[in-house]
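Message: Just now I want nothing more than another pair of eyes on a protein record. I am handing you a single protein, as its sequence and its fold in token form. As I understand it, each token names a local backbone shape. Take your time, and here it is.
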Amino acid sequence: MPDPVLSDYWQYNFPPFFTIQPNLETRKAQLEAWSSLILNHCKNNRIFKIDLKKALTEPPFQNASISRGLTLDGLITIFENMKEKGVADWSDKNKSSVFIYWNTPEAWANLIYHWVYNVGYINNVCTLYEIVSGDETVKEPFHGLDYEVLKKSLQVLEKQGKATIISLDDNGGVKFLG
């Protein structure tokens, strides 16, 4: 089934969109369009992390209908630009995968803390599993959140003095503070 987000971008069916443009003004507009497309695609499909090698072979980075796709260098250029804007971050030094922040860790932290406050979990301990996979969070926007993004979000709360991250076996946990 085609991604409905892709049909919102006329550029997606324009072959030059898949080649990083040399003209700086054109490139700036192209990178903005790619950033918007990627963020919307990831939000729509609840994608938190992208493996670059895998991405080269699938939409939105590959458009089979026009036989075009980004190169690895093109992907890196786009993600570097997104990183500069704070909406992406490399997951490793080799730049083999990237976190996509259609919600920043700070935004996830606010959503999580709002939920904690509303359900009365202040001064209680929750496992990471309970936060992203528990029955109580099924209707919350952070349900299903990638564990690494969750940890970054909890680190934000820890820096704000609203949480203490603790280690509980392999799962890990957090105590929320008032």
Notes: Strands lie at 49-51, 62-63, 68-69, 88-90, 97-100, 125-127, 163-166, 173-176. The radius of gyration is 19 Å.
